[in-house]
Amino acid sequence: MKYTKEDIVRMVNEEDIEFIRLQFTDIFGQLKNVAVTKSQIEKVVNNQIMIDGSSIEGFTRIHESDQYLHPDLSTFAVLPWMPAKRKTARLICNVYNPDGTPFIGDPRYVLKHTLDRAAKLGYTFNVGPEMEFFLFETDEKGLPTTRTADAASYFDMAPIDHGGDVRREICLMLEEMGFEIEASHHEVAEGQHEIDFKYADALTAADNISTFRMAVKTIAQSHGLHATFMPKPVFGINGSGMHVNMSLSKDGKNIFFDPEGEKGLSKEAYSFIAGVLEHVRSFAAITNPLVNSYKRLVPGYEAPCYLAWSASNRSALIRIPAARGQSTRVELRCPDPACNPYLALAVCLAAGLDGMERGLTPPAEITENIFTMTEKERKAHGIASLPGNLLEAVDLLEQDKVIVDTLGDHVFESYTAGKRAEWDEYRTRVTDWERQRYMIVY
Ligand code: GLU
Ligand code: MG
């Protein structure tokens, strides 16, 4: 919804809104906010609210710490889980430097900048994410466990599904915030759920992913449960993905659709797929950001590990769902819901555009189940693998100029430094697995 400054001031006054949360995300995708009362509303709409960027992960150094929040007025929404009297609304903000230029370390800026590149070619990038998550019980201190009383599986319903009520409330509240919920169901693993909302332009989609995570966590907590978007919380069962369905439109028309093209796909769609396949190994550090992300990307749990595309086969990294016409889309199955959605959508787009600019063609479609192929068979088909761990992913990221340029120096440097530190912290830990495996034998 497009709002003017005056609309915002009027809504705040007329709708009993007392608090306004000004939100933005750090480079690792954590949602941050500063709350002000309505006494500050003029300052809010005139971009005068300041933050100390030096305290935000990956933002600025101490000597250049003042930054300004420029709210995107179209993101104004009342938070439905907050008290109904003296309500709380939020605005998602862009981060600016004191001299009035956009801050290049703001992930929302990175995405906007990449979308501008597409816009220059006349393209709108549309994205529909499929968000998966777990609901776990909490212990007596309120801390998360990995226990779930729920023994349900794919599409099961109550009373086997114990998360139905929470999902229902999440859907209702998100609808109050303007989301169009397309599907909500129990996922394959015990305690695992999925909620899908309607696709949108990529900036709105990234804002929605961020809002979604906050809503799910908050509403689960009010039911005494802990919601997690950690990609693989439990060994031996499915992890949580965030498949992204992507398309480009020009003058309102989906350019991935071509009724004359092979499988109803345009040349642009094939080049986009080829570009994603070319860069996915190096942007995995963004779409799959955690040490834990790589424990999901293993055979046997419906998560992808091998670089291939297919019009049907769910074992492939890229799938083309059956719908054609305006709904024609490319589904990338590796991203997980712990990623920074702004950076993740920016690198996916940059990869696809690179494929289109260079007129790349993808390798042949793989119709067989890749998980049951031997390594030799995969080699014969020329099928490569996603990185096996975060370190490999960061190493690959550093070598890919298209992806590094998309992130910009600031984000690239802070992000990779943070991820190398995370890897170092992990690799020096001694785990239960090691003790079980080695202590008696050695
Ligand atoms: N949970 C699976 C994953 O890790 C995906 C299941 C599905 O196909 O929806 O990507
Ligand atoms: Mg799913």
Walk me through the structure.
About 35% of the residues lie in helices and about 20% in strands. The protein is globular. The chain has about 450 residues and is α+β, with helices and mostly antiparallel strands. Strands 7, 8, 9, 10, 11, 12, 13, 14, 15 and 16 form a ten-stranded mixed beta sheet that branches. Strands 1, 2, 3, 4, 5 and 6 form a six-stranded mixed beta sheet that branches. The structure holds glutamic acid and magnesium ion. Magnesium ion binds near residues 130, 132, 187 and 194.
Cα-to-Cα separation, first versus last residue: 65 Å
Ligand types: glutamic acid, magnesium ion
Q: Average pLDDT across residues?
A: 94
SSE class: alpha+beta
Taken as a percent bin, the fraction of beta residues is: 15-25%
How would a textbook summarize the main sheet? 10 strands, mixed
C-alpha geometry:
globular
* Rg of Cα set: 22 Å
The overall strand count is 16
Poorly predicted regions are: none
What is the percent of helical residues?
A: 25-40%
**What sequence of helices (H) and strands (E) makes up the elements?**
HEEHEEEEHEHEEEHEEEHHEEEHHHHH
Give the helix tally: 12
Keywords, please?
single chain, 442 residues, alpha+beta, ten-stranded mixed sheet, 35% helix, globular, binds glutamic acid, binds magnesium ion
Provide a concise account of the structure shown.
The chain is an alpha+beta fold.
Describe the protein's topology.
Blueprint: H1 5-14, E1 17-25, E2 31-37, H2 41-45, E3 49-52, E4 66-71, E5 77-78, E6 87-96, H3 107-120, E7 123-137, H4 164-176, E8 181-186, E9 192-197, E10 200-201, H5 202-222, E11 225-228, E12 242-250, E13 253-254, H6 267-287, H7 293-296, E14 309-310, E15 318-319, E16 330-332, H8 341-357, H9 375-380, H10 390-398, H11 401-427, H12 432-438
The structure holds glutamic acid (GLU) and magnesium ion.
